[in-house]
Amino acid sequence: MPSQPPPKTIDDVLQELDQIIFTCRKESSRLGYFATLYRNVTIKIKEGIAAGVFDDGPRMERLDVAFANRYLAALESFRQNQPVSNCWRVAFQTASNYWPLIIQHLLVGTNAHINFDLGIAAAGIAPDAQLPTLREDFDRINNILGGMILKVRTDVEGLSPWIKFLDQVAPTTEDKIINFSLNKARASAWLVATMVNSTPPEKLGTKLSILDDGVAMLASLIGSPKGRLINLGLRGIRLRESNDVPHIIDVLSQI
C-alpha cells in the first residue's frame, strides 16, 4: 500500500482503517483483527464526540487522531520492514502465528496501543499544565475501549466454541488473557502520560525504551502464556476455533 499523509480527522482515520481491513480481508491476514476492533472503537469515539459525551470534543478528536496515527505508523513501518517499537513488533508478528486465539490476537494489539501509545499521545495533546484537565475525558475514552473488548469477548464465543473451556483449564487464565488487566492498563496509560509530561527531553528516549521492552514482554505472555497445562488447553480451544480469517473479520466488524 503506498504511503499516505497521516490522517488529520477521525473520518480520515476511519478511511485508512477501512483500507487496512479491506486489504487484510483480501489477504486473509490476522492483522485485520485488531484493525477491525480499532475501527469499531473509533466509531464509538466519533459518536461520543457528536453526542457531547466528552468535556472537550475537539480536543478528543485531536487525541483520537494522534492515538490512531501511532498505530497506523507502526503498522506501515512493519509492512515496509522498517524499525518499529518492540511491543508493536511482537503484536504484528503474532498475526503470522497459527496458535494464538482470536482474543489473543486482539489483546496483543490492545496491549501495545493502551500500555505504550495512549499515554504518549495524551501527553502530546495536553502538555504540561494542561494534562490534568484531560483526565476525565481520558478515562471516558478508556471506558469505550474496555467496553468494546468485553463485547468482542462475547462475539468470539460464536467463532470459538470451546473458549469457555478456559475457565476449566485454569480459573485465573481468563483474567490473565481476556481481561489482561484492562483496569491496570488504563491506570498505567495515565502514568505514562504523566511520565512523558515530566521527563526532560534528553531522558525521555531512555524511559520510553524501557517502557517499550516491558510492554513487549507482556505482549509475549499474552500471545504465549507460560505453563504446559494452559498451553495444551489453549491449543485444544484453537483447534475448534474458526480459521476463516475473512469471516472472522466480518463478525468482528459488527458493532
Structure description:
Helices cover 76% and strands 0% of the residues. By secondary structure, the protein is mainly α. Helix 5 (102-125) runs antiparallel to helix 6, helix 5 (102-125) packs parallel to helix 9 and helix 6 (131-159) packs antiparallel against helix 9 (182-198). 39% of the residues are buried. The mean pLDDT is 88.
State the gist of this model.
The protein is 76% helix and 0% strand. It is an all-alpha fold and 255 residues long. α1 runs antiparallel to α2, α2 packs parallel to α12 and α5 packs antiparallel against α10.
Helix and strand layout, with pairings?
Blueprint: H1 10-27, H2 31-50, H3 57-79, H4 86-94, H5 102-125, H6 131-159, H7 166-169, H8 173-179, H9 182-198, H10 201-223, H11 228-240, H12 245-252
Gyration radius over CA = 18 Å
Biggest sheet descriptor: none
The overall strand count is 0
* pLDDT < 50 runs, ≥5 residues: none
Helix content: over 70%
Strand proportion = under 5%
Envelope shape: globular
Order of helices and strands: HHHHHHHHHHHH
The number of distinct structural domains comes to: 1
CA distance, first residue to last residue: 27 Å
Quote the average pLDDT.
88
Tally of helical runs = 12
* Structural class by SSE content: mainly alpha
